[in-house]
Amino acid sequence: MSNEVVRAHLIAGGFPAGQAAGHDHDYARLRILEHLKERDYVHTSLSGDYEDIEKWLPQCKLLITYVAGPVATDEQHEVLRQWVEGGGRWLALHGSSGGKAARRPNSSQREMVKMDYHNTLGGFFIHHPPIRKFQVSLVDTKHPLTQGLPETFETIDEPYMVELQAPEDTDVLLTADWGVVPPSEQGFYYKEDTAVLPGGSKRAIAFERKLSQGAVAYTTLGHCHTPTTNSQRTVHESVSPDHKPPLNLRGSWETEGFQTLLRNGISWALGEI
Ligand SMILES: [Zn+2]
Question: CA-CA 20 to 30 A from 230: which of 16, 177, 213, 248?
């Protein structure tokens, strides 16, 4: 192996700056750094949002994001897009498919705002029902990102509804099926459940999308919170019969499936697999 240093940039944080926004970013950041540190030649820089992305990305081979609220503005997105198209690999986790929500006129509900950023990511978060237990199923067994994953694994996580932005160019790797979720007056507004895959009620839990010389891999999994970062008011009965949210939750992070996916994601981004 050569002594060449490879740079990675990790963005982990909530919005507004410094806020947890319902997530234990410190835990997620630490676990991601542990994975990166398995290779001495990978040197990592850190940010809490996309504000200074132009400073770090040009020298990086790999970008990992774990955010709850921060999103790349159109200007920052240009930097991100060009970097990916030029050969960068972006491993995006959990809340990276979210961003800004706008209040609906004459309504107490808010609706997620789709930006160019979501087009590049290839996914747009529309809503999630309460945290629940569900099965994750392996779809693409040949893909480098799914090597070593079991055919199915169970997890407890936020059941994210993420609409694919370029389904024709997207390789769906993992799916889950908890049914179509009709709009309700709880949570975010959306007109219909556009996050299910064609012809059924399965939805993408992880996917890869190639963009010119580079690529994006995203997984909806990865919710975690502690008593001081929790913002969940209720959970599905599969987690607590009384619907009370657990004060500490690390869900997918404690599954071998998610850890394998994360490890594969880093190997994929570094071009090792
Ligand atoms: Zn979450």
Answer: 177
Q: Which residues pair with 163 in a beta bridge?
A: 124
Q: Tell me, yes or no, if the pTM score tops 0.85.
A: yes
Do residues 93 and 207 make contact, with C-beta atoms less than 8 angstroms apart? no
- Cα-to-centroid distance, 4 and ligand 1 (Å): 36
12 C-alpha vs ligand 1 centroid, how far in Å? Answer: 13
Compute, in angstroms, the gap from residue 67 CA to the centroid of ligand 1: 9
Question: How much distance in Å is there from the Cα of 71 to the middle of ligand 1?
Answer: 15
250 inside domain:
yes
Q: Residue 206 is part of a domain; what is its CATH number?
A: 3.40.50.880
Check: CB of residue 112 under 8 Å from CB of residue 188: yes
Question: From ligand 1's centre to the CA of 85, what distance in Å?
Answer: 28
Assess if residue 164 is contained within a domain: yes
**Number of domains forming the structure of the chain:** 1
Per-residue pLDDT of the chain (273 residues; tens, 9 = 90+): 567 999 999 999 999 999 999 999 999 999 999 999 999 999 999 999 999 999 999 999 999 999 999 999 999 999 999 999 999 999 999 999 999 999 999 999 999 999 999 999 999 999 999 999 999 999 999 999 999 999 999 999 999 999 999 999 999 999 999 999 999 988 899 999 999 999 899 999 999 999 999 999 999 999 999 999 999 999 999 999 999 999 999 999 999 999 999 999 999 999 998
3-state class (DSSP) for residue 222: coil
Å from CA of 165 to ligand 1 middle:
21
The count of residues in the chain is 273
Domain coverage including residue 188:
6-269
Residue 142 to residue 211: CA distance in whole angstroms? 20
142 in a structural domain: yes
